[in-house]
Amino acid sequence: MALPPSLRTSISPPELQLVASEQLVEIVPLVSMERTAFISGAYGPLRPPTKCKVPLWMASNLKLKKKCHIVPPPWLNVDFLQERLLQETTDPSFSEMPFRFAEVAKILLDVAPDDLQNPDRVRGLLKDIREARQAKSREGLSKLDHNELMLPNLCAMEINEIRPFFVRGMAVLTQLTREPPQEDGMDQG
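That's the DNA replication complex GINS protein PSF2 sequence above. Prediction below.
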C-alpha cells in the first residue's frame, strides 16, 4: 500500500527489512569459517555441508559472495502459501503468518531466488496474500471504533502501513466522543 508523503510518518519498508535481517535462518555453507563474533552475537563455525543458523544479514552477505545456500523457511513454499491464500480469501479473519513474513520473503527473493522452489510462483502468491490482507485491513479501518480495534495476526509491515490512518482516526473519534464542556450557569450576556 503506497502512502502519500504526508502520511509517511512510520518506518519505511527498507528499515523494516533491516530489522527483519536480524532473524536467524539456516544456511548450507560452501566454505569453512571459524566461530566469528559480531555485535549481535557469535555465529559459526561454518563447516560444509553441515547446516548452520545465522542472521539473515549474514546469510545474504555470504550468498551474494557465493559462499552458502540459504535454506528457505518452512512457510516460504508454494503449498503453504496457497493454503494461506485460500484462508485469506475465504475467512474474514487474518491467517497466521510469521510476523515479518513480507520483509524476510522480499530479502530472500531478491538475494536467493535460486535457493527457492518456483520463486516466480512464490512471489505471485505472496503478492496475492498481501493484497487480500490489505483489503481486510482497509475493511477493518472502515469499521473503526474508538473503544477497540481487533485485527489479530497482522504482520509488521501491515501494522506499519495502517499506523498513520489509525492514529489520525482514533484522534478524530476521541474528539467526537468527548462530552462538550459544561457551562457554569452564568449568562455571558
